[in-house]
């Protein structure tokens, strides 16, 4: 069983880290004020405001910021400011034993995907494919906050992950499987293939989402995951949205799923609202979930915090 971090409560301290691309100071400051207005205390990694071209700071510096948050006993949750690119470069500098001994909530998506899955694989820690600092603003739909806090601040179990009204999950291959859920952003996962940090899908339920990639690129990603055995190893498949993805050669995102994934005959659900979409379901990486693609349900069957 994976390690559950302690639940988050108002008045707790959140540690902010910029682990990929830089984020402008004004955005950081306005989002931080939103969190403070919600009742949280904030501490900053040394390089939260830094900028070094494509990334915020060196891989060692960004990794040190993350490790310092895990070591700080006052920090209850670690929140990524944003994703962007470059997160995988910090992985060789992390001490997964120290992280295992100091479990904390950590939340993010996009390029943070590779970190979330690595923390589960190497530290056995449940992590959260959910909100980042950039999402803490008045325009964020209540659904996103409800999902986030239900996953991180309650012991509710079982918890059904449901899309907002009129955005139903759809089963393409019927079935019923239970196992740990892994996955997230396709670009992030494909970029880690062939490295020590590539995702392990054996006996897992794999979910995927993507943004701003034409379907020619999605075809490449799905093919690479197929040729790497990731779909063959998994128990079932959950496909999220492809946000702002252009259609190429008259072939849609769903066309690719039907052509490449349906023939595997693994339980398969599509249309999960999470990640880069407007609505963001909170997915607990490493937690046991039930995927019932006959009834079109996704249920977290255990508490994800303690």
UniProtKB/TrEMBL annotation:
Keywords for the protein's UniProt record, in alphabetical order: Carboxypeptidase, Hydrolase, Protease, Serine protease
Family that this chain belongs to: Belongs to the peptidase S66 family.
Protein name: LD-carboxypeptidase
Domain LD-carboxypeptidase C-terminal: 178-291
GO molecular function, one term: carboxypeptidase activity
Any GO BP: proteolysis
Source organism: Oceanobacillus zhaokaii
Domain LD-carboxypeptidase N-terminal positions: 14-129
Record Pfam families: Peptidase_S66 (PF02016), Peptidase_S66C (PF17676)
Active site feature: 110, 209, 276
InterPro entries named among the record's database cross-references: Carboxypeptidase_A_C_sf, Class_I_gatase-like, LdcA_N, Peptidase_S66_N, Peptidase_S66C, S66_fam
